[in-house]
């Protein structure tokens, strides 16, 4: 199966086109398109062109120069955010701002309540203490990665809780294995590692086959399972670490 055919099969299972996104939210495509344009709802996570080219915010464009009109695939998690927006009376740009502010506030509150939040986002801690301003700036960047379609690649649902869980469990896996360099694990460390990987997998999508090896599932689930003999990994393809992004 070609790369584009494999991707088509994947997005058909996990993503929706604009009409289905609108139907799920109980509105029309014109309204949803206006929300996407205003930053209320995210851009597509995948685009596939008739000539076999395809693109994503994670990993860029493949298959040559795009030709024709793309088929755009959106995260179904956006349906809940569109439903929220439909209950608001402001203009789309103002709704976008309100949603972003709500997300940022929730993110900072949740991260501040965690005793081990530094495992998720070490750069927003100073001498072990969370910097609210740095956390708010980080949260705004996370929201921007949702709106540009990037986090739609990564997470089954979109919320501050899910974003933090993803990074916290990833950070815990890194800490338990010293970044996959640790030679052996104690019995208790093995159990803690399995729990962290299970929690990580619960919030994440599988990723498209061409993205998984270099993304979080490939690096911090598949690779760790294989290295420490904890189970059969989904992919044995070598990761291209240089292509990683935070939300991958």
Protein architecture, described:
- This protein is α+β, with helices and mostly antiparallel strands and 248 residues long.
- The protein contains ten helices and six strands.
- The chain has helices at residues 3-14, 18-25, 29-38, 78-86, 92-112, 132-147, 150-154, 160-177, 187-203, 216-227; strands spanning 46-48, 54-56, 60-62, 71-73, 125-126, 129-130.
- It has a four-stranded antiparallel beta sheet, covered by helices on one side. A two-stranded antiparallel sheet has the order 5-6.
- Strand 1 and strand 2 form a beta hairpin.
- The radius of gyration is 19 Å and the shape is globular.
- The two termini are 25 Å apart.
List keywords for this structure.
disordered C terminus, 10 helices, 4-stranded antiparallel β-sheet, 248 residues, 52% helix, 6 strands, two-stranded antiparallel sheet, single chain, globular, alpha+beta
Strand order of the largest sheet: 3-2-1-4
The tally of strands reads: 6
The fraction of residues assigned to DSSP E strands is: 5-15%
Largest sheet geometry:
4 strands, antiparallel
Structural class: alpha+beta
Shape from CA axes? globular
Which parts are unreliable, with pLDDT below 50 for 5 consecutive residues or more? 236-246
Proportion in helices: 40-55%
Lay out the secondary structure.
Elements: H1 3-14, H2 18-25, H3 29-38, E1 46-48, E2 54-56, E3 60-62, E4 71-73, H4 78-86, H5 92-112, E5 125-126, E6 129-130, H6 132-147, H7 150-154, H8 160-177, H9 187-203, H10 216-227
Antiparallel strand pairs: 1-2, 1-4, 2-3, 5-6
